[in-house]
């Protein structure tokens, strides 16, 4: 099982490296009045990390709300 996990990790690492190499073109990102010029690969990584953080936060909030619902009303 450890070897399979290692193979999966190596495969994911190789795919990420390929993603970086193929997407080094510079793109302009605009948000409201801000404007940034960054490599596309970096933009993809930042968006992925923001998605991970927001997804984890949302799951934590849902767990907390379901736990509070199970305890009944607070006094």
TrEMBL record:
Give the protein's recorded name: DUF1049 domain-containing protein
List, for all copies, the residue spans of the domain called Lipopolysaccharide assembly protein A.
22-61
Superkingdom, natural source: Bacteria
- GO CC annotation, single: plasma membrane
Q: Name one Pfam family in it.
A: LapA_dom
Originating species: Halomonas heilongjiangensis
InterPro entries, from UniProt? LapA_dom (IPR010445)
* Transmembrane segment boundaries: 7-25, 31-53
Q: Which UniProt keywords apply?
A: Cell membrane, Membrane, Transmembrane, Transmembrane helix
């Amino acid at each position: 099982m450890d070897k399979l996990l290692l193979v999966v990790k190596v495969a994911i690492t190789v795919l990420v490296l390929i993603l970086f190499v193929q997407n080094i073109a510079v793109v302009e990102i605009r948000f409201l009045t801000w404007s940034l010029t960054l490599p596309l690969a970096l933009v993809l990584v930042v968006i992925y990390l923001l998605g991970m953080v927001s997804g984890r936060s949302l799951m934590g909030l849902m767990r907390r709300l379901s736990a509070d619902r199970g305890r009944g009303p607070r006094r």
